[in-house]
Design goal:
Layout lengths: L2 H23 L18 H7 L6 E5 L5 H8 L3 E6 L2 H14 L4 E4 L5 H4 L5 E7 L9 H11 E12 L1 H6 L24 E4 L15 E4 L4 H10 L3 E8 L1 E2 L8 E2 L5 E2 L8 E7 L1
Parallel strand pairs: 1-2, 1-4, 2-3, 4-5
Antiparallel strand pairs: 5-12, 6-7, 8-12, 9-11, 10-11
Length: about 280
């Protein structure tokens, strides 16, 4: 597929996320009208892998509303969030201001992040939980990440497992509790086009731009892209927990997240890499 075609699809995604933002701001899923609790979006193993963040320069790519970005600032990091949606960046700024936290947000496509951030380098680049599926070219993404990191800096990627993506992030119409493979696990077969009036959250229908495009990426593709960009893989963690109950038979865990009683399958993974 041509670069122009990818650019057209990413422009459609940008418009779609602009349209999603007001729905997400008012949703119970994000709960931003309640006490801000960004730590609830993190698995415990993330903090172990991220290490001490106080005084560190931390960049959150594809940050949307900045919920995780806020958590880094709360832990003493100099936090920066980047997202291609102008509506998301405006909302994230409002959330940070309300919380009294100093977080910088930049509107830019992730592929343009090096230039958009003035070639600034970071100690930590963080990304994930539904971000990579909106990127058509992981080799290009990994190259951007490598250029954003200082020598010795770390990438922390936390993503929904490709197996979960194959099962679908939400039930299909009339779907029961069965685990049904509905999408590819492996990438390489082009974009998946969606035209959805409702997003993964509760709330009203999205008004306006409802078209979006997603690309499937297996873990092997992610690992190879990072290695080819010169990064070293330090740890890969697979987890059977999610921050929301995807299936009705999921049970609450002591962490406050949810897991299937059976079968035990990976639903989320964390990958630590260093430059």
């Amino acid at each position: 597929m041509s670069t122009d075609e990818h650019a057209r699809m990413m422009s459609a995604n940008q418009a779609n996320w602009d349209a999603r933002t007001p729905v997400h701001l008012g949703s119970r899923f994000y709960g931003l009208d309640q006490d801000l609790d960004p730590a609830r979006w993190f698995a415990s193993f993330e903090w172990d892998d991220l290490g001490e963040l106080a005084g560190r320069d931390v960049l959150h790519l594809q940050c949307h509303l900045g919920t995780e970005t806020i958590a880094f600032a709360q832990r003493g990091a100099r936090a920066v969030g980047l997202d291609f949606s102008g509506a998301s960046v405006a909302a994230a700024n409002g959330i940070a201001d309300k919380a009294g936290l100093d977080v910088s947000y930049v509107q830019a496509n992730v592929y343009d992040a090096v230039e958009a951030l003035g070639r600034r380098r970071f100690d930590v680049v963080y990304t994930g939980k539904g971000a990579l599926c909106y990127l058509p070219d992981l080799d290009r993404w990994a190259g951007v990440v490598a250029r954003l990191l200082r020598p010795g800096g770390r990438l922390y990627l936390v993503e929904f497992h490709p197996l979960l993506n194959s099962l679908g992030p939400k039930p299909g119409p009339g779907e029961g509790p069965e685990l049904l493979l509905r999408h590819d696990y492996l990438g390489g077969d082009g974009a998946v086009h969606r035209d959805a009036t409702h997003t993964y959250t509760d709330g009203p229908a999205v008004e306006g731009a409802t078209d979006s495009y997603e690309w499937m990426h297996g873990i092997g593709e992610v690992v190879n892209a990072l290695v080819q960009a010169g990064l070293t893989i330090r740890r890969l963690t697979e987890s059977d927990e999610l921050p929301w109950p995807r299936w009705p038979q999921m049970v609450r865990t002591p962490s406050g997240w949810w897991r299937l009683p059976e079968p035990r399958i990976p639903l989320l993974y964390g990958l630590l890499a260093t430059r």
